[in-house]
Specification:
Order of helices and strands: EHEEHEEEHEHEEE
Strand content: 35-45%
CATH topology: Cyclic Phosphodiesterase, Chain: A
Number of domains: 1
CATH superfamily: Cyclic phosphodiesterase
CATH class: Alpha Beta
Helix content: 25-40%
Shape: globular
Strand order of the largest sheet: 3-1-9-10
CATH architecture: Alpha-Beta Complex
Distance between the termini: 27 Å
Radius of gyration: 17 Å
Number of helices: 4
Largest sheet: 4 strands, antiparallel
Number of strands: 10
Length: about 180
Amino acid sequence: MRLFVGIPLAAAVIGELAATVARLQSDADGLRWAAAESWHVTLQFLGNAGREQCDCAVARLRALRLPPVPMRLEGLGFFDRAGILIAGVRVTPELLLLQRSVTAATQLCGFVPETRPYRPHITLARSKSKGQGRGILELKAKIGRQPSFSGFAAEEFLLYESFLGPAGSRYEVRERFSLGGG
């Protein structure tokens, strides 16, 4: 199983992002656009795991007791070297606490924490070619004024399984974990 832990988006934010993507997207842009149902904020990519390691992670994550996390998107940006369009997510103390708690919990099951600084985001599109292809450069010129997005309180986080395919990744929810004591 290929696993990761993430926060699902509120319906209002999905609608706002979908409207933004519809304005930017074109059939000839050379980009692979992520489906709205796949949008999430990753807390930790776990990678490949067997059943025992997955069960351990579920038990450890279920034991976490943390408050709901205020979430706010901060506008569109790019990971230039990878050729990825993102919606940035504001880093709050509550989000950092959740991310660090998830990482500490899963580390007890043998999952290796990321060494790079945590940069929460939602992946919206990827260049079909490596790096900053023509589609990304045209997209940068097309964005113009940054959109604004609604905030929301994340009341749960999820364990997802990722399935790779020619059209991109497909995600299935394996477990749900409540924030706020439930």
